[in-house]
Write a structure and sequence with these properties.
By secondary structure, this protein is α+β, with helices and mostly antiparallel strands. The chain is about 35% helix and about 15% strand. It has a six-stranded antiparallel β-sheet with strand order 1-6-2-3-4-5. A two-stranded antiparallel ribbon has the order 7-8.
C-alpha cells in the first residue's frame, strides 16, 4: 500500500542536504557543498534508468521530488503514482502536464501533493507539500538556495501555480460512484476553466506555455531566445488558439474549452 505519509517522511529526512560543487561526496549531506547542481538524487535516478538521460549537474528540484517516490516505491510504481508517462525528462512543466492529462491538477492542496511554482513567466520550480494549514502550506523543496529546504507559503501566494495530486491508495476510488469526474468535467468546471480573450492568471500562463511549446506565439516577452508566457489572454493568444484549433480539426473559435484543453494536453 502507498501513502502520502511515505513521501512526507522521506522528504523531511532529506532537509539540510546541500548540492555539491563537483560530482563527489554525493552521499554526504554537507560535504563538498556548492552550486554545481550535483546530487545523489539525480545520480540514483540515472542509475535506475528513470529519465531519458542523466540529469546530474542540472537543476534538480524535480529530480528531488521524483527521487522521493522512487525511494519509496521503485521506478514503475513511483512513476505510476506520479501520473508520469512517456519519454521522461526532469522539467517541472512536464511533470505538471502529467497530472493535468489525468485530471489530477488543481488549486486545493493536500499533504503529499506535488506543488508547482511560477517563475520567469511559467512553471519552473516544484516541491512536496508536507503540511496544509488554514491559510498556509509547508513544503520540502530540492534546489532551494542550493539545498533541500523546508518552506512555508501563504495559500494565496501568486508564486503557487497549482498542485499535482498523486495516485495514493487513500485517493483511489472504491466504486464508480466515487470515481473522479471525466477529463472534460474536471478541466472545464473544476481544474482548468474555460479561457478566452480577456482571461488572466496562472492557468492562462500554463495554457500559453503549452502553445509556445508547439511553436505558437502568445505575445509574451522574449528572454534568452524563448518566449515567456505573460498570463494575459489577448488577441495574439486568441489567434494562436484559432490556428491550433484549425490544425487539429477543432471548432475554430479562439476559446480554450474542454475539447481544446484535451487536445492541447495530450498532443
Amino acid at each position: 500500500m502507498n501513502s502520502a505519509n511515505d513521501i512526507i517522511r522521506i522528504a523531511l529526512a532529506e532537509v539540510g542536504y546541500r548540492e555539491k560543487a563537483t560530482n563527489a561526496s554525493l552521499d554526504d549531506p554537507q560535504a563538498n557543498a556548492g552550486n554545481g547542481n550535483w546530487t545523489r538524487y539525480a545520480r540514483d535516478l540515472a542509475a535506475a534508468g528513470y529519465y531519458n538521460g542523466n540529469k546530474n549537474g542540472y537543476a534538480w528540484c524535480d529530480c528531488f521530488v521524483d527521487w522521493c517516490f522512487f525511494k519509496a516505491y521503485g521506478v514503475a510504481e513511483g512513476q505510476r503514482i506520479q501520473c508520469q508517462t512517456g519519454d521522461l525528462g526532469a522539467a517541472c512543466m512536464y511533470s505538471a502536464q502529467y497530472y493535468m492529462k489525468q485530471g489530477r491538477y488543481g488549486q486545493d492542496p493536500k499533504p503529499g501533493d506535488q506543488v508547482f511554482f511560477n517563475a520567469d513567466g511559467g512553471i519552473n520550480h516544484t516541491g512536496i507539500v508536507v503540511e496544509v494549514k488554514a491559510s498556509s502550506i509547508v513544503t520540502v523543496e530540492g534546489n532551494s538556495a542550493d539545498q533541500v529546504q523546508k518552506r512555508t507559503y501563504d495559500r494565496g501566494s501568486a508564486r503557487i501555480a497549482g498542485y499535482g495530486h498523486p495516485l495514493y491508495d487513500e485517493d483511489t476510488p472504491t466504486s464508480a460512484a466515487d470515481a473522479p469526474p471525466s477529463l472534460e468535467e474536471k478541466l472545464v468546471t473544476v481544474e482548468l476553466p474555460l479561457l478566452k480573450n480577456g482571461s488572466v492568471g496562472n492557468v492562462v500562463k500554463n495554457a500559453q506555455a503549452l502553445l509556445i511549446q508547439q511553436g505558437y506565439t502568445c505575445g509574451g516577452r522574449i528572454m534568452a531566445g524563448r518566449e515567456i508566457p505573460d498570463g494575459e489572454f489577448g488577441p495574439t493568444t486568441e489567434d494562436s488558439v484559432k490556428r491550433f484549433q484549425c490544425m487539429k480539426n477543432l471548432a475554430v473559435d479562439g476559446i480554450i474549452e474542454a475539447g481544446t484543453w484535451e487536445v492541447l494536453l495530450t498532443e
